[in-house]
Amino acid sequence: MKKISVLVLVLISFFGFSQTATIENKVSDRSITERFPNKLNRMFTAHGTYKRWDAMNQLSFDLLKKGGETETHLVDLKSRKTLISSSKFTIGFDGTAVWMNAEGKFPVERARFYHNLYFYFYAMPFVLGDPGITYSKVNDLSFENERYTGYKITYGNNVGDSPEDNYFVYFDKTTHQMTWLGYTVTYGDDKPSTEIHYIKYTDWQKVNGLLLPKKLQWYDSENNLPVTSSNAADFENISVSEKMIDALKFVKPVDGLIGEK
Fold first, then answer.
1. Which one is predicted more confidently, 92 or 196?
2. The whole model's pTM is what?
3. Alpha-carbon Rg of the chain, whole angstroms?
């Protein structure tokens, strides 16, 4: 059995996915219909519709860490500029560079992979509608006598830091709500990986017309299938809004450190 017992390893493995292209323009109803397979449209509809998501300009949430630490994540949904604030560090993305406050207690060489990592975990399934994605039907995923409809997500060349990575979304056949995310990891490796890791999405809440997760549950895998639950991440104080964010929030401090690419 292949076990991913430490959450940090899972986070590092997901880095490639965190660097997808930014969103510049809103999409029309017709372009949505043309871009997504019909069954994926049903999934987006079950979560409030992609059109509703596309109308939003900002997302914020608190990530509850082990030991009682809380991180507040703020994201401009169109530019994907990001700000993470905690008592230990501040990490930002100004649209060009990832930075960290000079006195921050966080490895600056990891700031780039971390700056929007949890955003992509949290903003499922809507980030699966980003530009540059190709969708293909895959076999159902079976788990505890339930079967989930699945699609494979791949990226075009030069989209993100690891376009060779593959992702798999699985949703409930009745409610069409997303239930599983599978992903492979190639970032930092010489060749693509075929090993699939899994996160389960089961605890949802309605926020401004969108169905967003309260908790993410990682699973250890065996033979590329989820087996037993391991680490989890909890979220509170969720807000998603059409209101624009002042771009000055994301500007690097004069003494800020630049995260490595």
1. 92
2. 0.84
3. 18
